[in-house]
Design brief:
four-stranded parallel sheet; about 25% helix; UPF0180; about 90 residues; alpha/beta; globular
Amino acid sequence: MEVLLLILAIDKSHKNISEELIKKGYHITSPDSKEKVDAVLYHSGYEKGILENINNSSLMNSANTSGVLLIDIKNKNAKDVDEILKKRLYSPLF
């Protein structure tokens, strides 16, 4: 079974969850980065305009296919996010 390195964009203000996700093997980058990402993690309670401010070039995932998973981390911990990413059970926005 091939293990893929998933690249996650998350604001540096969420240091605790970022550190835990790094320990689980995820690569963390900033939402402002030009790096292609597989998921954007945001907190809907604090980052109201995150969807408008995401760098459009990062909206292509690291596998060069369109589509990036958006995960609201409000009331979630690193374990919850890890399960969402592994199972891809998070409901789409649209």
